[in-house]
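Supplementary Note 3. Input sequence used for the single-chain structure prediction.
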Amino acid sequence: MLLGQTANEAALPNGRPLDGVRILALESMQALPYATQLLARLGADVVKVEPPGAGDQGRGSTPAMTDPEGRKVGATFLRNNLNKRSICVDLKHPRGKQLVLDLAARFDVVAENSKAGTMARLGLGYEDIAAVHPGVIYVSVSGFGNTVETPYRAWPAFAPVVEAMSGIYELKRVGDQPPLVAPVGALGDISAALFATVGILAALRQRDRTGQGQYLDVAMLDAVVAMTDIVTNFWSMGLPSGTVAPLIMHGFRAGDGWFVIQVGREHQFARLVDLIGHPEWVDDERFATREGWLDHLETVLRPAIESWAGSRTRLEVCDLLGAAGIAAGPCFVDAEVAVDPHVAARNMLVEVPRADGVAQPVLVPGNPVKLSGVAEGPETRVPWLGEHTDEVLRTELALTADDIASLRADGVVA
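The predicted structure, written as discrete structure tokens, is reproduced below.
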């Protein structure tokens, strides 16, 4: 899907479910920006507040492109900031803090993802914002939360930190090898962003009923503990870290690469062994229990599965497995995902033209939330650093050109 295109155009007259909702986002990197981008895709007006100079830390990530001013715009920023406006305000300057307080009164949601306690120290915490806007939905996303004292509250955190602390790295670590860090991208960021999105929508709905705002506090570690539920759940049921659950959930080799199967029930096992030409194994005592499947996986099952699959492609194998009621999927590489027909049909990649003359567009994940009564797109590109500072200050606070020039001269805005 190209930037600026629209899918499900017939639904355009319906508008979007969050039309009229306004979000002031004091955000950086991904744990909050992914959430506000999703809300913007659903119609919210998101004004992003960045520090003068480097801006959002995500702009400094790699790989990167350059903007029309020759400044770096990193991949993390490009993935998480479509459909937003950017203003540059120095929150540490007294006049900058006052600008944010003045702006906050005009927004439904004020959201931040600094280290716990940072906004309160700047005079921009929940109590400060609620004093000028009692109905505000104030959102904090941090590594370990703001509202409860924990041993880790003061720690900075990125996604791999909370992923490690959830126990999932140890669950999947092999022997004495070091843990595989960030095996699925930024799970710690995206999970926190999704729970923040749910919380924001719930808080807005409650305010519709009660007229009251509230504080939404999301800890990244909480989010990952919820996403990696098997760690503590399995432990509580006698299956500690390092113990393999008794099911076939492994990768196997086909003629052109790897595919994954999940078989966890006896009827699925029966269908699998029948498909690969060994229906007699259903009554074989070696496979009478699920533990037996794993005991003989490498010596018996894997050779048979891979012998059957070796003359077929991954897609052919998975088609046959799927037709037999066995869940399976090919292991794609990046270039295959980029041109996958399912991904294209579902508009799950947005092509963002580069601003530095490189022909290959930047691919950004699309919106996974498909609503039949809501058009998808058109998306607008990420904002350049501080691109909308003057516009927002003029329209929201009625500041004059001289007022803005004074703020800029003092380094308050950029």
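Residues 248-331 form a domain with the formyl-coa transferase, domain 3 fold (CATH 3.30.1540.10). The chain has a mean pLDDT of 96.
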